[in-house]
Design a protein that fits this description.
Elements (H helix, E strand, L loop, with lengths): L10 H12 L3 H5 L11 H16 L25 H13 L11 H4 L3 H57 L3 H70 L4 H221 L1
Helix pairs in contact: 1-6, 3-4, 6-8, 7-8
Length: 469
């Protein structure tokens, strides 16, 4: 269990987080580090656990002091002091496995240790922080789902209205169908005829205009040539005037030549005038042709207006179709978003159902555990009298044995005194015996020395006669 899935917070960080996110008012201001860690105050620690349970599960304060309804208890007064602690332990045992803590015990509520309390609070605060983050995401998803559903409904209504409008535009009333069909056929025929007539007349007019332009260009070219010739003739005339007196024959020849040229010029002038009159006739005929062309143009403009009206109707129909397609695309997108949101919601519901199943199983286990605890308490209460009788009997036996032990101690002291007296008597006797033994040993040693001396003297006596001999 030492490798957890949550970070370990320091006591200072835990106190700061509790002040800012869990507690409020005077509870947050009066909370200090010594109330939770070290020599922890049980009422403060229980209050922190209760506030966390209120924040996570929404448990009200009075629920901690309520007796379980489904359990039959003969003497509920016995559990009045222990009931808040028991309910707190039950709810904490339900919360902490969600926080990846599975070794919470009743001793952690009654006699908390600093390291275990820090680990439990680290896991709980990590879960509370994760819950707040996920809650924001869940609320955002819920709002997006609601807005998507509203947009989906709006798009569906707009789609239905567009479909109705499109049907109205596409459907022609029965009484006007024949007339509309006849008008469309007439319009097509008139368009074809007008196009053909307009093209034919336009080509003819273009040919006539091109011909007239070419004739006018030719006549202007000839006129320019004539002007040039007239200018040259005037110059020659001026020159000839100065030569009239000198050569009359040349003047005569020159006059004849000039007469011939004048005739030629008159002839060409006559031709130009005839062409001009023919051109004038053509120009006089041109306004009537222009009027006819204008009539055809007006008819074409009316046909163009009808075509534009038809095109506007078709464009409106296309716009409506585009709007319908965009609405359908948005509807599909909304449906996909709805499906994804539904899948998310179903996944959340599945997780919620699994969590509820686990919680239900946990509750059943807790209820079963409570039942066993209450049964055990009842059995303990039943066995309490028998145990008390046994304890009193054992206490009496202990007193009797203590009395016997005291008597035995007194007898042992008496025996010890007797043993001491015997020991002293034996010691005195042994001392006397030792003294007698020492005296006998000394006397025996003295007698031995005397006998040894006598034996030495006898040996010396024996040795002296042998040496003399």
């Amino acid at each position: 269990m030492e490798t957890m899935t949550f970070p370990r917070y320091s006591p200072d960080d835990i106190i700061i987080y509790l002040r800012s996110h869990v507690l409020a008012g005077a509870e947050a201001r009066n909370l200090v580090k010594g109330d939770v860690f070290g020599s922890a105050k049980l009422d403060v620690l229980h209050m922190i656990y209760m506030r966390i349970l209120q924040k996570v599960y929404g448990i009200r304060l009075e629920h901690f002091y309520m007796m379980p309804v489904r359990v039959d208890i003969m003497y509920p007064q016995i559990f009045e002091g222990f009931l808040p602690v028991c309910n707190l332990y039950i709810h904490m045992e339900r919360l902490l496995p969600v926080c990846r803590i599975n070794d919470f015990q009743i001793a952690d509520v009654l006699n908390p240790k600093t390291k275990r309390t820090a680990r439990f609070l680290s896991g709980i605060l990590n879960f509370v922080n994760f819950r707040e983050l996920r809650r924001e995401v869940y609320l955002e998803l819920q709002l997006n789902y609601k807005s998507a559903m509203e947009k989906h409904q709006q798009l569906e209504t707009a789609n239905r209205e567009a479909v109705v409008k499109l049907e109205k535009l596409n459907t022609v009333p029965v009484e006007h169908q024949a007339e509309v069909k006849q008008l469309t056929d007439n319009i097509r025929e008139l368009e074809q005829l007008l196009r053909q007539e307009y093209r034919r007349k336009q080509t003819a007019l273009q040919e006539v205009i091109s011909q007239k332009k070419s004739d006018i260009a030719e006549s202007t070219r000839k006129l320019n040539e004539l002007k040039v010739i007239m200018a040259t003739l005037k110059e020659e005339q001026e020159q000839l005037k100065s030569k009239i007196v000198e050569s009359p024959e040349e003047l005569k020849n020159y006059k004849e030549l000039m007469k011939e040229t004048v005739k030629k010029l008159k002839k060409s002038k006559q031709e130009v005038i005839e062409k001009y009159e023919s051109y004038r006739d053509l120009v006089e005929v041109l306004p009537s042709c222009q009027l006819e062309v204008q009539l055809y143009q007006k008819k074409m403009e009316r046909q163009g207006a009808n075509v534009e009206r038809l095109a506007s109707v078709l464009s409106e129909v296309r716009n409506l179709e585009d709007q319908l397609e965009s609405a359908q695309i948005e509807l599909k997108k909304g449906k996909t978003d709805e499906m994804s949101l539904k899948r998310l919601v179903t996944a959340k519901h599945e997780k919620l159902s699994t969590a509820e199943i686990r919680i239900k199983k946990k509750r059943e286990d807790v209820e079963q555990y409570k039942q066993t605890v209450f049964e055990y308490c009842n059995r303990v209460q039943e066995k309490r009298g028998a145990v008390y009788d046994k304890v009193t009997a054992i206490h009496k036996e202990i007193q009797q044995t203590r009395f016997k032990i005291q008597q035995l101690n007194e007898n042992a002291e008496k025996e010890e005194m007797k043993a001491k007296e015997i020991y002293l008597n034996l010691k005195a006797a042994l001392d006397k015996h030792l003294d007698s033994l020492i005296k006998t040993a000394k006397s025996y040693a003295a007698s031995n020395e005397e006998t040894i001396a006598e034996l030495k003297k006898g040996l010396l006596r024996v040795q002296t006669p042998g040496s003399s001999s």
